[in-house]
Structures are given as C-alpha cells and as structure tokens.
Amino acid sequence: MCEIVLVGRSNVGKSTLFRALTGERVPIGRRPGVTFRPYSVRIGNLTYVDMPGYGFMKYRSWRDQERVKDLIVRYLEDHADRIITAVQVTDAASFLEIAERWESRGEVPVEIEMWEFLCDLKLNPILAANKIDRIANREQVLDWIAERLGMEPPWRRWEDRIAPISAKRGEIEPLRNLIKSRIEMASSSP
Prior knowledge:
single chain; 190 residues; alpha/beta; Rossmann fold; six-stranded mixed beta sheet; 18% strand; nucleotide-binding; GTP-bd; P-loop_NTPase
C-alpha cells in the first residue's frame, strides 16, 4: 500500500487541500487543532493521509501539542517505506513572518525543521505553498521561502519540489502534477 501524506503547521489548509485532492469531506475549522488524529482515505492503490497540524494550537495544552508532534514523527518514521511523497503544506502568506519570529527567539522555525526532517527521511517531499492567492509579489515570496528551506533561488529552479497553490479556490494543479510525477517514479522503480 502506497501513501501520500499531508503534513504542516496548524491552520495552513491541510484539510482543505485533502478535500480538494480526494473529494473526501473531513472536518475543517478556522481555529487550529481541529484535526487531532491522522485521517486517511484510499483511492485506488493509494492512501492519502491528512495528519494533524503541529505547532501552536490555541485550545490545546502544551502536552497535547507535544503528543501530536510525537505522533506525526512516529507515523512518518514507521510508514516511511510506503510513503511515496510527503506534502508539506505551508501558508505562503505568513511563512516568512512566522520564520522570522522563531529565529528572533533563537529557535529553528518549525516549518524548516519539518522540511529537513522529511528530506532526512528521504520522503521525496513537496512544498505546497498554500494561500498563494493572498500574495501580490509571489515570485519574490517564493524565492524567500525556497532560500529559507535551503534551496538556492530562484524558486522556479525547484518546480519539482515547490507547488504554489490555493486549496480554498481549488487551484492545485501544480501540486497534482508533482504528485503524479512522484507516483510515476515510484511505479517505475524496482
């Protein structure tokens, strides 16, 4: 069984994207922490998995937030051999502001830490830069995001890893194309 896993910080649009990719209605909400357990749906030979969000969740205790983070890490490690790709969903409109806030406290931003973890696990990750419709200077913001994730700008050099999307508007074709290419690569490898 092959899996495509959606991960990301709380309230970046993972569940909305999951719905757009699968047609499956999952609980979504305006506040962080609505998805608290992995939710999966099988489509043909693939299983799509919507992971709970990590990071700040206003109505959850610190202990609950840590449990969610541990659950995500354990799930990815335990299922790495069957994950075709991990799609890290980010809110492109707030990515830089949040990264700078973490860095100003001397901490590694959680989204950068997750990206590095997905790469270390060799999960062939895709960055779904969601809410791109809210950004006026898209090219510049995507360049900055790519650079923060260790990819030399311009971001277009990384179109095989970065998909600018708007899940809420259903504008996810760049991501669909990258997922399709990951599936084709997995099918052709021994």
